[in-house]
Amino acid sequence: MSAVISTVEPAEETVRPESRAWKKLKASKSALLGFAIVAFFIGIAVAAPILPIADPAATSWSVVRKAPSAVHWLGTDEIGRDILSRMIWGAQASLMAGVVSVLIAVLVGVPFGLISGYFGGWIDQVISRITDALLATPFLILAIALAAFLGPSLTNAMIAIGLSAMPIFVRLTRGQVLSVKTEDYVEGARAVGLAHFAIMARYILPNVFAPVLVQATLTVATAIIAEASLSFLGLGQQPPAPSWGSMLNVAKNFMTQAPWMAWWPGAAIFLVVLGFNLLGDGLRDALDPRET
Amino acid sequence: MLNSAPAATAPVLDVRNLALRFKDTPANIVDGISFSVREGETLCIVGESGCGKSVTALALMGLLPRSVARVTSGTAMFGGSDLLTLPQRAMADIRGNTISMIFQEPMTSLNPSYRIGEQIGEVVLRHKRVTRAQARQRALEMLDRVRIPAAASRLDDYPHELSGGMRQRVMIAMALANDPALLIADEPTTALDVTIQAQIVDLIEELQKETGTALIMITHDLGVVAEIADRVSVMYAGHIVEEGPVEAIFDDPQHPYTIGLMSSVPSIGPRSGRLATIGGLVPTIDRMPSGCRFSPRCPFVQADCLKAHAPLSTFGPEHRAACYFAPLETVFAEAAS
Questions:
Q1: pLDDT tens digits, residue range B260-274?
Q2: Distance in angstroms (rounded) separating the CA atoms of residues B300 and B311
Q3: What is B13-98+178-336's CATH number?
Q4: What is the pLDDT of residues A121-141, one digit of tens each?
Q5: Is the Cβ of B61 closer than 8 Å to some Cβ of chain A?
C-alpha cells in the first residue's frame, strides 16, 4: 500500500476550483488593487498600537486646527489632536464596524436563508415575508432606527448595521439553496440516510457559499459607509475615541477654516470602500463557474 | 442463472399491491404492482420513460416528498417491517445502510465540495460505529473493490477530477460501503457511453456475486437486462404487464407490449426491413384509458380489454402476464377456427 501512495502523486495538470479562482483573481489588476488597498488599511489598523504616533485623544491648545506640517503630517483638529493618529485609530473602528457587522449579517442571515430555502412550506413563507418587510425599509433608515433604539455606541452601531444588512443574505442564500437543493448529490445524501442538518451543513452550505462571500465583501463597503453615517449622526463611535465618520461629523463645522479635517477621513472612507468593491467584483468574476 | 437463485429462501424485499398517486392527478401513476427479490437475485424492472419505475424506487427509499406524491395502497416488507409506513427517522437509518441506491446521473450525484474519500467515508460514519480513520480505510477498500486504479491516490480527489465512469464507480462504492442487503440501481448506465456502460454492468454483476446482495435494476435498456437479470418485471403505464425469468421474457413473451418491446430491439447483423416500433404514445396521467392501459396501442385489442384490466395469469414457472388473450397464437387460432 505504501508503494501505491509513494509512486502515484496526484496529477499535476488537475485544476482544483480554488486554484482556478485564485489564478483569475491574481490576473485581475483591479482586484489586486482592491486587495492592496484593503490590506493596507487592515495593516495600519492592526499596527495602530505599535506605530510611533501621538495619542489620538491627547489634546493640545497650542496646535488647534493647524494645517498639515512636518510635525502633524495631516494637521490637527479643533482641540489640537493629531489627525494622522486619529485616522489610524479610526481605521480600527471603521474596519471593525465593516467586518463585524457583516459577520453578524452573515451569521444570522445565512442560517435563516438555508432553513427557508431547504424546508420551504410555511417556515419559508414566514422567513421570506419578514425578509421582504425588512428589505422594504431603506438600509440606512433601518440602521439609524435600530442604533437609536439600542443606544449610541460602536457595538450597538455594529449590531444595527448587521441586522439591517441581514435580509440581503437571507434572500441570497435562500435563492442559492433553491437551486442547489434540487441537485442530484443532495438527493444522494438523503439516499444514504444523512439527517437534514448534516445535508444543510455539508452538502448545501459549501455549494452556496461563493456568492455569499462576494456579497459579504461588497457589503463590508456598505457597512463602513453606514458606520461613518451613524458616527456622523452621533450614533456610532463615541468621543473621544476616533472614527472616520465622527471625525467628519466634527469637521463639517470647520469646513472653511480647516478643510483638511474633512479631507482625510473622507478620502479614507472613499478609498477603503473602493478597495472592498474592487475586491468583491474581482471575487465575483473569479468564483463565477460559468466562465472558465 | 435462474437455477443459481435460491428459490426457497424468503424474499429480501416483498412489495405487494403498491399504488402511488401524484398530487392533484386523477389516476394512480403506479397502480397496484407487486414484486419481490431474494438474496443474491437480480430483478430488472423494465419499461419506458414515465411508466413509474423511478417513482417506485423513490417510494421504496422513502424519498418521495409527500408534497409531490403519496402511497395510496400497498406494503413493502423488508426485514420484518413495512418500508411504506416506517417513520422518517427509521427510514433514514435504513437508507445507505441496509438498502442503498445508485442514481442515474453520476456527473451530478457527488458533492462537488468534498473529496471522494470523505464522501464514501461519511456513509460509513453515518451508519457504523467507526472512527474517521476506519471510515477512510473502508473508503479505500471500496475504491479498490470497484476497480479504481491507484485507489489510494484517488481518495483525495474531488469529483470533478474524475470521469463519468469513475464517478459511477465511486457511487457504487458508496452504495456498497455498508454491505446492504438490497441495492436499488436506477438506470445506472443511462448517462454513460456504451463501452463504459458494459464495464459498469459487469462491475455491478461481479460485486453482487461477491456480496450476495439482492439487486433491483431499473432500466429501459434490454441489453442490460439480458446480461444481468435473473427475473424481469415489465412495467407499462404503472402496471406490471408481465413478469418472469429472463429467459421466458426474452424467448417467450406473452403480453403484446413485451412482444412489441422485444421486436423493437435492433440486432447486430444485416438489416432485414424496418425496425419494428409500437405505434402511439404512453398515455398521460390525465388520459389513462380504463381497462387495460396498453389497449389504445395494442394491435390485438378486443372489447373486453376496454372494460377491465386483465389480472396476471400464469404461463410457466414464475412467468405471468396480464392479458386476456395470451398466449396470442392459441387464443386467436381458436377464435379463427
A1: 888 887 777 777 777
A2: 17
A3: 3.40.50.300
A4: 999 999 999 999 999 999 999
A5: yes
Residue A245 has pLDDT above 70, yes or no: yes
Chain B contact set for A9 (CB, 8 A): 153
pLDDT in tens, B247-297: 999 998 999 999 888 888 777 777 777 777 888 888 888 888 888 889 888
* Interchain proximity A194–B92, CB inside 8 Å: yes
Q: What φ, ψ does residue B30 adopt, rounded to 5°?
A: -120, 125
Q: What is the pLDDT of residue A158?
A: 92
Q: Is A47 on the interface with B (CB under 8 A)?
A: no
Domains of chain A, first to last: 43-48+72-287 (1.10.3720.10)
Which of A171-175, A288-292, B200-204, B245-249 has the weakest average pLDDT? A288-292
Of A97, A182, A186, A202, the C-alpha closest to A147 is: A97
Q: Is B174 on the interface with A (CB under 8 A)?
A: yes
Q: What is the predicted pLDDT for the residue at A292?
A: 44
Residue A9 has pLDDT above 50, yes or no: no
Q: How far is A175 from chain B (nearest CA, A)?
A: 19
Contact call for A193 and B105, based on CB within 8 A: no
Interface list for A 135-154 with B (CB within 8 A): none
Give the closest-approach CA distance of B101 to chain A in angstroms.
Answer: 7
Closest chain A residue to B141 measured between Cα atoms? Answer: A1
Searching chain B, which residue's CA lies closest to the CA of residue A192? B96
Higher pLDDT, B41 or A285: B41
Average pLDDT, chain B: 87
Dihedral sign, Cα of residue B176, residue B178, residue B184, residue B188 = negative
Given an 8 Å threshold on Cβ–Cβ distance, is B123 in contact with A192? yes
